[in-house]
Task: inverse folding
């Protein structure tokens, strides 16, 4: 781990395994079905594109979750308690936490994200706007074992995991990841987590296929990243964004589909595509409130409060470590 202390905040970088991206891409394109984990969407460009997705009218999760945070910040603060160490895995732009900080008055805020430059800028913004807050940003892959050496032994830790990012894990992996969060928060800790709800598939299909094509650009940016960082020669124009709700699995799937037969080279490896062949790039599982509470209980949490909007689009859960 390397660390840089600026006057305003501390920044730590936990380097991923060397060749991590290269290995995931070569391995993922060699498998059938082909798949590349969604965490590789988030280079600088990918992080900015995700921010634009959040502004699209069809993309209801961000505005719905933000409205819940604004409306219930004081209730959330009451259950979470003040003076905690507030840890946000996958913090992105750190915009949502702004609705909690004044109400919660945490002792410290720890945003964690894989997108280093983007995290640095977001953490600096928080540090500037909340000068009373101790900020420790950690650039890391949250699916790797992460150590947080600056949480004092006796401090209460509260995790904030918004954006329904938990939906990117298959349920088995989600359970294991939640159990890992429970072990970090420990006794007396808690987790405030945003979870997208099951709903009319037409709403989901629209949200992941916005009219401006921002989600498509976000998905296709993965191929641009491969071309740039791994000497790839994907012809971006010949791949199409494909997103749909798979009701049997309870998830939205995103794919990149080859529109013609072609050969692609990545870092000296050759990959053949027929027309219609897909690379599976993301799942976003949707849950009912009860389904998610069961999953959380299996991971060692006790459901404490749930807030949702009138249309039952999105839910915000506060869970205590059992
Ligand atoms: C869907 S965005 C959500 C951003 C923000 N939390 C929100 O709710 O708007 C996912 C965020 O998690 C980060 N991320 C994805 N996979 C990650 C991983 N394995 N480790 C650390 N951060 C990750 C991305 O860089 C991105 O900022």
Result:
């Amino acid at each position: 781990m390397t660390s840089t202390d600026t006057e305003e905040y501390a920044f730590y970088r936990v380097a991923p395994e060397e060749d991590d991206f290269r290995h995931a891409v070569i391995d993922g394109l060699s498998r059938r079905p082909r798949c590349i984990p969604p965490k590789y969407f988030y280079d600088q460009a990918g992080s900015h594109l995700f921010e634009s997705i959040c502004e699209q009218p069809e993309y209801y999760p961000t505005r719905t979750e933000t409205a819940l945070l604004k409306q219930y910040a004081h209730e959330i603060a009451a259950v979470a308690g003040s003076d905690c160490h507030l840890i946000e895995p996958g913090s992105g732009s750190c915009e949502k936490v702004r609705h909690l900080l004044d109400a919660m008055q945490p002792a410290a805020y720890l945003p964690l994200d894989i997108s280093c430059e983007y995290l640095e800028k977001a953490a600096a913004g928080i540090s500037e706007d909340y000068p009373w807050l101790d900020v420790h940003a950690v650039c890391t892959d949250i699916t790797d074992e992460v150590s947080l050496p600056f949480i004092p032994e006796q401090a209460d830790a509260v995790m904030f995991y918004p954006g329904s990012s938990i939906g990117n894990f298959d349920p088995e992996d989600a359970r294991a990841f939640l159990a890992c969060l429970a072990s970090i928060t420990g006794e007396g800790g808690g987790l405030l987590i945003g979870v997208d709800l099951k709903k009319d598939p037409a709403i989901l299909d629209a949200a992941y296929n916005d009219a401006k094509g921002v989600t498509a650009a976000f998905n296709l940016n993965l191929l641009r990243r491969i071309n740039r960082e791994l000497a790839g020669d994907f012809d971006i124009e010949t791949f199409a964004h494909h997103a749909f709700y798979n009701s049997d699995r309870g998830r939205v799937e995103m794919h990149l589909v080859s529109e013609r037969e072609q050969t692609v080279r990545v870092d000296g490896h050759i990959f053949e595509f027929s027309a219609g062949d897909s690379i599976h790039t993301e799942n976003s599982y949707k849950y009912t409130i009860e389904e998610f509470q069961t999953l959380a209980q299996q991971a060692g949490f006790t459901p404490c409060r749930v807030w949702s909007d009138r249309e039952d689009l999105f839910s915000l859960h506060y869970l205590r470590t059992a």
